[in-house]
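Hey Z.,

So I finally got round to the zinc ion thing we talked about over coffee. Here's the setup:
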Amino acid sequence: MSTGYVWHELYGWHDTGTYAGLVPASLMSQPYQHFESPESKQRFHSLVEVSGLAPHLTRIFPEPASDEDILRVHTPQHLARIKAESAQPKGGDAGDGTSPFGHEGFAIAALAAGGSIAALNSVLDGTVRNSYALVRPPGHHARPETGMGFCIFSNAAIAIRHAQAKNPDLRVATVDWDVHHGNGTQAAFVCDPSVLTVSLHQDDLFPRGSGSLTEQGEGAGAGYAINVPLPAGTGNGGYLHAMATIVVPALRRFKPDVIVVPSGFDASCFDPLGRMSVTAAGYRAMTRALMDIADEVCAGRIMMTHEGGYSPTYVPICGVTVLSEMSGVPVDVIPEVYAGFDTMPEHVLSPWQAALIEEVRVAHALPTVAG
Ligand code: 3YP
Ligand code: ZN
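And the result:
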C-alpha cells in the first residue's frame, strides 16, 4: 500500500503580501516577502516531482472544507469574519496582524483544511497506508475563535473532527514537530480524552508563554495533552531522545487508531525562525520512529499535514526525505555538503536536554525505556 500526497496549485497562491519577513514594507523596510511565502512549499512540491518520487505516490486532490467542517472547530464569528475580509479587494488578517491573506483567501484556507481532511480520509478508508498533505496556509496556531501565527483555520483539528463525525469512536494522537507550540490543535481537544495532543517545540518561542510542561489538558482531557518544551539549540540527538522517551511510550499507552503529525520543518538547522538544529537525516529518523510505533499500535496509519518551515532551500530536502521514508522509495536528495551537518556537536544529547525530557516523562508517568 502506498503513500498519499496532497498538493493543489492554489496553495501556492495564498497571498501573504509584501513584507520584509514579519515587517510590512515601509521606508525603513525594503519590500520583500512575508516569511510565510509560497517559496519553501512550492519548491518542496517541485522536488517531489523532480526527485522521481511523484510517480510512486498516490496523488490526492482536495475539496474545500465545508462550513460544517470548519464549524466543528471554529466559532461562527471567526468563520464569518474570514469570509467578510476575504471578500475585500485587499483581503485581511486572520487575527493577530501577522497572518495576512489576500482577496479570496478564505477559499484557499478552506482548501487547506480540505487537504488535511482528504489526506486523513484516505488513510482511514485504507486507500493508502500513510499520507502527507502539503497545504498552505498552515493551521496549528489557529484557535476556535481566531487565527494567529500565519494560520487561518486549524487544519489538523478540522480533519480529526471530520473523521470523528463519521466514526465517533475514533481515537487520534497528534505529534506536532513544528518548532513552535501547536497551541491551536491543543486548544481544540484540551478537554477531550479521545485525542491525545503531543507537541515537541522550542521552549517559549511562539506563542510566548504557551506550551509549558504544566499544560497537560483540562477536565475530562486532563493528562491528554503532552508538551515537550525543548531548550533552544536542540539537534537530532535531543529530538530522537524525546521521541524514544516521551512520544513512543505515550503512543504505546494511548493506542490511537491513527497518528496525525502537524509537520513543520522550522526546527531545522537552516531555519530563520527557529533556533534548533534538526537535519534531514534527523527528520528521516523521527519519521522511522513514528512509523515503527504506528505499525505496532495502528496498522501504520499516519497522516502528516504541513505547518511551518521557512528555508526555501532546505525545507524541500527535509520534506522529500520524510516522504521517502514514509513511502519506502529510496530517494536521496541530501547534498554531500549538507550531510556534514549531521556530525556537528549540537546533535549530541546534552545533560540539560536530557533533564527536561526526564521531567516530562516523570510528569506524565511514562515508563522508562529499556536499554
Ligand atoms: C508567527 C509570528 C512569529 C513566529 C511565527 C511562527 C509561525 C510558525 O511557523 N508557526 O508554526
Ligand atoms: Zn512553526
